Amino acid sequence: MLSKKSRLDKDKMDQIIAEARRREKTYREQALKMYPWICARCGREFTGKKLRELTVHHKDHDHDNNPPDGSNWELLCLYCHDNEHQRYVDEEWYDKASPGGEQEPPSTFKVFAGLDALLKNKK
After folding, report:
1. DSSP structure string for the chain
2. pTM as predicted
């Protein structure tokens, strides 16, 4: 049995998920009307039951940014969509520069600098 706090947390999470699904349904329907049913990355075409494998990707990764002209959306298959999000996570993890952004210079530390002198002293 769930405690009162756990039950409240679960209810809150259920509300958040329901709202996200409602919003997603709305912009997905719009995107499917605007764009051809083709993955923007791999070019695979979708029809019939396979259409559920075509997802809406937010180019700026902000799911709340849903302009009515669809300029922040592109249709991607499940595989390309997963790949795109993994690339985004990797860029954040490795702190790569974004287009137009600055990247820190590489390290100039040399691990073996002076090793030859230390080895000569050991002989």
Report:
1. ---HHHHHHHHHHHHHHHHHHHHHHHHHHHHHHHS-SB-TTT--B--GGGGGGEEEEETTS-TT---TT-TTEEEEEHHHHHHHHHHHHHHHHHTPPPTT---PPPP---TTTTHHHHHHHH-
2. 0.57
User: What is d(CA 105, CA 94) in angstroms, rounded to the nearest whole number?
Assistant: 13
**With contact defined as beta carbons under 8 Å apart, do 56 and 28 qualify?**
yes
Residues 55-84 pLDDT 10s: 999 999 888 888 889 999 999 999 999 999
User: Which sequence spans correspond to the domains of the chain?
Assistant: 4-98
- 20 and 26 Cβ atoms separated by less than 8 Å: no
